[in-house]
Amino acid sequence: MYNTIIIGAGNIAANFDSPDSADILTHAHAFQNSTCFNLLGFYDKDYDMAKAAALTWGCHAYESLESALESAQVVSCCVPDPYHREILEKAAKYKPQLVITEKPLAVSMTEGRAIEQIYDHQIPLLINYSRRFLKEFQNLREAVKQYGTFLKGVGYYGKGILHNGSHMIDLLGFLLGSVECLEVLQPEIHDFEGDSSKDLILKIQEGQFHMIAVDSRIATIFEMELFFEKARIRILDGGTRIELYQIKESNTYQGYYNYVLSRCESVNYSNAMTGLMENAQGFLNGDQKLLCTLADGIDVLRICMQIRGEVL
Fold it and tell me: Domains of the chain (ranges plus CATH)?
């Protein structure tokens, strides 16, 4: 078993569920549900939070980051976005066998490149863009190869281009390949801790994809629609439902063709955290490649920083 430390003791680390929960929504629950990992405990700059998480999950609360890292073979970084670089740099000094970090990789390209310089070809880094770890999206990635040329699409998101919009950019890249930003539209919505949401146009293959920002202070949304030569895909309800439409000739009007719903698939999003840990275990055992690498995180960060107007 690999001795594991969680840095951060907030929701995604420990508080979205409990040991008795049916769904596995936290790093702590996923680690404890695996026979591969031995969860030693938590470190958080708020020691009371670390103690509360340790009490819930039956492990240790560390008073210093250094004392936590010195025993860890696997480190899970679950701190707020602006602190990723600091934690990842400090973790690297202890040469763990694997580091897992929540997305996004960093909050600027400068920080991303600094992390890249430390980790590249030295310490394996797995980034939790969660939909990559769901079997339904892995299967969809293979299926789209049969649907012909990507024509165009539209997606709706909020809570910041970096914090949540990066999820959509990463999923598009995962499903369809290289993504480029063509145009950023105004105005922007200031709806998440300085990380604004913007309408924009992406280029994917030879088609365009329009990302539309919806104010997350009103409602949270993550949906997209993809049109191909031979099919239409709708990803709805935060990614918990996938609809496939196939092209069929109209029963009424000869020579007219429509996208007709052929399959609707429910996605249990709570399986994403389990999938993340299974990929980590498979990598450590030498059976799998990492499903979301440092290079993937850098690619998404570069696009997000271009959208935010950072000089790259």
Answer: 2-131+272-303 (3.40.50.720), 135-268 (3.30.360.10)
